[in-house]
């Protein structure tokens, strides 16, 4: 990655992080409700029976209510667990599953751990993002876990990034290792941006 791209990514992440931190709790709660409705509709439209989804932090668009409701409806939900080698392990979400602080201080499940290839069986990947552009390029938070996961899948299902409405932008800085997403979910809309990879 060139220094210019790396610098542009750092600057954009810093701005987005700051914007998220000053958001009111009322706005966060409304966003979580909207995201849940959008994700519920997406899962239904795709007839997904097995999905992966991240557990949101306090500053991300809320996904936890969606995950709990999906589990209650009998959908198999894999939750990511970060590893020191840059790969993701997975754990199946349960109604009473415990959450602990993971490798980078992120919320992660406590329970039986499945290896990285467990995600190959899902019908839909729901992943975090800092921003997503109209070409389907995603700006993550800089650790590369989801780019590695998406890039290593033999048959990648639809991949949707979750962001706030203002984080769907004209362009994000990207390089050859960055993986596009199929679409974006915000509190008010779900948009298909790029073709599904096979």
TrEMBL record:
Record bears the keyword Membrane: no
Gene3D superfamilies to which the protein is assigned, alphabetical:
NagB/RpiA/CoA transferase-like (3.40.50.10420)
Q: Which cofactor does it need?
A: Mg(2+)
Statement: the UniProt record of this protein carries the keyword ATP-binding: yes
Task: Provide the E.C. number(s) assigned to this enzyme.
Answer: 6.3.3.2
For this protein, the record's InterPro entries field holds: FTHF_cligase, FTHF_cligase-like_sf, NagB/RpiA_transferase-like
Q: SUPFAM superfamilies this protein is in?
A: NagB/RpiA/CoA transferase-like
The cross-references to Pfam families, in alphabetical order and at most eight, read: 5-FTHF_cyc-lig (PF01812)
The family annotation for this protein states: Belongs to the 5-formyltetrahydrofolate cyclo-ligase family.
Q: What is this protein called?
A: 5-formyltetrahydrofolate cyclo-ligase
Q: Which organism is this entry from?
A: Microbacterium pumilum
């Amino acid at each position: 990655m060139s220094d210019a791209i790396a610098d542009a990514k750092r600057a954009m992440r810093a701005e987005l992080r700051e914007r998220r931190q000053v958001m009111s709790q009322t706005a966060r709660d409304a966003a979580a409700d909207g995201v849940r409705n959008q994700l519920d509709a997406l899962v239904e439209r795709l007839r997904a029976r097995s999905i992966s989804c991240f557990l949101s932090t306090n500053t991300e668009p809320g996904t936890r209510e969606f995950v709990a409701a999906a589990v209650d409806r009998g959908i198999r939900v894999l939750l990511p667990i970060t590893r020191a080698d840059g790969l993701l392990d997975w754990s199946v979400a349960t109604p009473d599953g415990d959450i602990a602080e993971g490798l980078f201080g992120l919320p992660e499940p406590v329970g039986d751990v499945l290896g990285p290839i467990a995600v190959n069986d899902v019908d839909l990947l729901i992943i975090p993002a800092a921003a997503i552009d109209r070409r389907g390029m995603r700006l993550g938070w800089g650790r590369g876990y989801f780019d590695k996961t998406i890039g290593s899948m033999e048959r990648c299902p639809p991949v949707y990034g979750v962001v706030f409405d203002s984080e769907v932008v004209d362009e994000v800085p990207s390089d050859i290792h960055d993986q596009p997403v199929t679409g974006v979910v915000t509190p008010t809309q779900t948009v298909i941006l790029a073709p599904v990879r096979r």
